[in-house]
Here is the input.
Amino acid sequence: MRLTINGKEQEITGADTVADLLRRFELLPVRVAVEVNEELVPRATFESAALNNGDAVEIVTLVGGG
Amino acid sequence: MTDKLNDAHQARYSRQILFHEIGERGQGRLLASRVTLVGCGALGTVLANTLVRAGVGFVRICDRDFIERNNLQRQVLFDEDDIAANLPKAEAAARKLRRINSGVTVEGVVTDVNHTNIERLAEGAHLLLDGTDNFETRYLINDLAVATGRPWIYGAVIGATGMCMPIIPGETACLRCVFDEPPPPELTPTCDTAGVIGPAVNIVASFQAQEAIKILTGRSDALIRGLMNLDIWTGRNTIVNVQPGFEKGDCPCCKRKRFDYLDGSAGSRATSLCGRDAVQIDPRRDGGRTNFEAVAAKLRGIATGEVLQNAFMVRCTVGEYDITVFADGRAIIKGTADVETARTVYAKYVGA
Here is the structure.
């Protein structure tokens, strides 16, 4: 399916949920916040949050420096 | 509060008053406001600089650290003279800021902000500002802000990227609505491991300062709603809509009212300063007290080379370790990232 991830449209296969997508990019759920179609997805629901063709996904990594 | 400013204030802040969203009324509010800034490194110096120049009436600056040469690339309030004078960051910043604006009150406090002292340090503050470099302290600020219903502004930066999020407890998502637990420190890059560039610091801290000015002038209606995610290098900036995390979520802090960091159940007594090959030891957390003069005398007896001492800290090298002991009893042991090793060094050379 086509997803727009952090502003870039790309073809992604085998990622049905937010958790799948994070595994695909080797991102640890504990370090990121995910927004799908301009709504934050609660971390506790990453495994069940379904992704659909055309979704816009923002993955942001929590920043700690200062 | 009267909206009328005296002539000196009118003149000094005229350009800011001319900006119609602030005006004389907003300036009056700034002059009457009090903030507590936690951490005075890269973000903290830009924040303090901007707010003191803007005329925030009382700024308390809390920082636990001393200045290193590699700070000067981005920490705008410090210079080579401060390093030569062996000044801690909070003191150096306060001295500089008083020269910039003698009409407001600037207080520098050399301390590690933790659950035992944050309430006192934030007493009377209308707003808490994040200039920290670690998650433990940010989650502590978040706890206090939510527990006492005061706003705070999260800001963070690394490399060329950063984040900023104003938090109005009970109204907008808090830090734990978005990130319920902090990531483990060993998985988190810091400015000491991944680097950071000045423009990113200035931009992120300037967004924080702008949101602070909105809150302090009574213009929370104009706040940026959400988590700003900034990539200074590519220029791609987004605002993540985190409000569903607050409205639909089950936040441990702002919904379930669990203040794990404020009540001391989360957090640590000795802190490895990530990426700096250094550990902070704070004996006060174990109920200990330190006699600063006695420690200085003891270090003079065992130091390899010169012992530098002023009213704020004593520093020396003992073998492979650089030891800095602050007047409040804390020590930073450089030369190890291992907490147990640092504790042993502390017990051996400073005091048990």
